[in-house]
Amino acid sequence: MRILVIEDEKKTASYLRRGLTEKGFTVDVAGDGGEGLRRTSSGNYDLIVLDIMLPGRNGWSVLAELRKAGKQIPVLCLTARDAVEDRVKGLELGADDYLVKPFAFTELLARVRNILRRSPMRPPEVVSVADLELDLLRFKANRAGKPLDLTPKEFSLLSLLARRKGEVLSRSMIADQVWGIQFESDTNVVDVHVRRLRAKVDDPFERRLIQTVRGMGYVLDEPR
């Protein structure tokens, strides 16, 4: 799942990116409201973590513009202000939850997961392909009932392939969705991670699920 953090404090933004990435999310960061809105137009996000006290266009303005444009992406607002009227304003503008700074990362993570569970846009919590099963909210995977020991990036890559079952995904699309980077022809990060993923997901089992489509990319599908 992909999260956009709109936060101008570099230390806080780095803290959120690192923590959420370690929990298996793909995280993009925007340093101001204008950049955040531009990213929502070009990226498919499952959740936005939105700071209110932003330079230029503040968080209230960003939230109002998102809802005015009909975008129903769930939004978790962050602010240093604890006044009741601020919390009410955020909820009235269409925020899904509100967290006051400073906060514990464990609480933020719990709120993120709760929002995703109840969001009308939420992806399925469990995705299955043949005997492979992924719990997208708890970041657990098993095949034939046996737990798979995956790194956060391996889980993100596998969940992307599983959610797009049967669809050939190009290396550039995978790089953008999992790493948030523009793919370059001399970069083999995708191939390396697919190879490592196959060693855990396919090699110990009789049937292979991850297939290479020469000249196009990778696809995960039930074996024929």
Description of the molecule:
The structure is a single chain. With 224 residues, the protein is an alpha/beta fold. 41% of the residues lie in helices and 21% in strands. It is built from 8 helices and 11 strands. It has helices spanning 10-22, 33-42, 59-68, 84-93, 105-118, 152-163, 171-179, 189-201; strands spanning 2-6, 26-30, 47-51, 75-79, 97-100, 126-129, 132-135, 140-143, 146-147, 210-213, 217-220. Strands 2-1-3-4-5 form a 5-stranded parallel beta sheet, sandwiched between helices. β8 (140-143) and β9 form a beta hairpin. The longest helix has 14 residues, at 105-118.
Topology, element by element:
Blueprint lengths: L1 E5 L3 H13 L3 E5 L2 H10 L4 E5 L7 H10 L6 E5 L4 H10 L3 E4 L4 H14 L7 E4 L2 E4 L4 E4 L2 E2 L4 H12 L7 H9 L9 H13 L8 E4 L3 E4 L4
Helix pairs in contact: 2-3, 6-7, 6-8
Features:
224 residues; alpha/beta; four-stranded antiparallel sheet; elongated
Q: Brief description of this entry?
A:
The chain has helices at residues 10-22, 33-42, 59-68, 84-93, 105-118, 152-163, 171-179, 189-201, and strands spanning 2-6, 26-30, 47-51, 75-79, 97-100, 126-129, 132-135, 140-143, 146-147, 210-213, 217-220. The chain is α/β, with parallel strands linked by helices and 224 residues long.
